[in-house]
Amino acid sequence: MKLTEDEVRYVAELANLRLSEEEVHRMSQDLGQILTHIDQLKALDTSNVEPMAQVLFAADETATLREDVPHDCLGNRDALANAPLSGAGYFKVPKVIER
Amino acid sequence: MSRLSEVASLTIPAIREGLVNKRFSAVEVAQAALSFAERENSATNAYLTFSPERALAAAARVDEEIAKGEYVGTLAGVPVAIKDVIMTKGLRSTCGSRILENYVPPYDATAVYRMEAEGAVLIGKTNCDEFAMGSSNENSAFGPVRNPRALDRVPGGSSGGSAAVVAQGTAVVSLGSDTGGSIRQPAGFCGVVGVTPTYGRVSRYGLAAFASSLDHIGPFSRTVEDAATVLRVIAGRDDLDSTSAFAPVDDYHTLMKEPALGMKVGLPKEYFEGLGADTGKLIGAAVKELEKLGCEVREISLPHTQYALSCYYIVATAEASSNLARYDGVRYTSRSDGDTLTAMYRNTRGCGFGPEVKRRIMLGTYVLSAGYHDAYYRKAQQVRTLITQDFTRAFEEVDVIVAPVSPFPAFKIGEKVDDPLAMYLSDIYTLTADLSGVPAMSVPCGESPEGLPVGLQIFAKHFDEAAMFRVAYNYEQATAR
Fold it and tell me: Chain A contacts of B239, Cβ < 8 Å?
């Protein structure tokens, strides 16, 4: 299993990761090696096996729902405290919509 | 606390006894633990942040409560350390990542809240692999942790700092997180007890999410009893984590002190293939000890074990690629400039994440991408079902399963750093508990000829931590020096 450097660049775009050319080169080798190992799963017949998304335990369907009443939550100031850039009670980001 | 090293021999019951009989105060214990921890840290790099104000305030509260004859909490005056992927209000929590270097959480994780409510004294945050991704602690942005038992070796990972501080004795207990073995493997490498509870047993509210269907919080300690004490404090339903289970929490202390006589112990043959000779010998001796205690030992098979590593690296990285999307330069402290929003995201993440985190985000993004989802992700979820069914069948015959924690003891710093797959293989015996959700723990079972600790792994049925503690406690008592 090989992952070409172009495929690596495409996946990095999907993942919103800037990679240097050196990283792209290294990533193509590392991911290729790991995917080769992972390919062993193809040998296993799973045609009648249900996929398992997570560990589930017996509980009523609504067990995790709480009463629909307001309660304390993180305030605006606390929520923004770690923002690299904020103003007027909002997170600030580079301009998204051009005039 | 005349000598700092006295802290190293303390246990939860010893602290309680000392406080109640006024042999020392909680403030004295806290001061000694803090000084000891700060002194030792230059050798091990196990702590990323110390919290003296928080520790001394908590200790003073404990002393006041004792003086007034009020309720003394289960963890009153106990110096604890918390892995840096677990949020602590007002106390920097970096997740071992450059991207969160200056992140100060506005809330406490439920596990931390529950421990402090019982009088625990939080002395600091521990180093770990970046976002808990790693098996050696070498992926921390703040430098590797050194194993206190052999300073040229890794402490294991990803909760290497939490294992190291308990092994060196600067904290009495600590919390770590386990997604593929990150509590049990470092516990084994450092010679301490480490517990991965049943999936859902402990609330993950305030744990930075790595792979949500696999993440656990659990304790490290020097005795089985202390691990059981901490688990009982942090376990149980939490409305702030909808995946936390409603199952009642057992009285571990009473149940684990029952003799192990007649317990059925399974040895999965797949876990003994490819095992290092020294580790194999020690595990063999531990199994003999269990037989002496009256356990019925039999060989069993967990036939899909060989697929666990592939299954894990698909499921875990897929979930990680989604969970780590939140670190985008908008909400969490670090931002690198970019002309457009997308450029800002990409630059922030490209500069902020280390190589292993990038590798896993890439692998996870790839296996979820169009055209590959069924071949990888769905396939891995099906294999996960088969691995879980292996355990369900095995537990129809046996009460607990016993195996090594890792194929070999702690390796040298730098030894596996250039070979991701070789590094991943150090977790082959621990991944299955995370995939199937069963509880498992590591308990020390001796040392290799080089003096490196080896861990015995004990698995139990979902929510039957009591059975696991019972075997571990009886084994520990029988082998105590």
Answer: 66
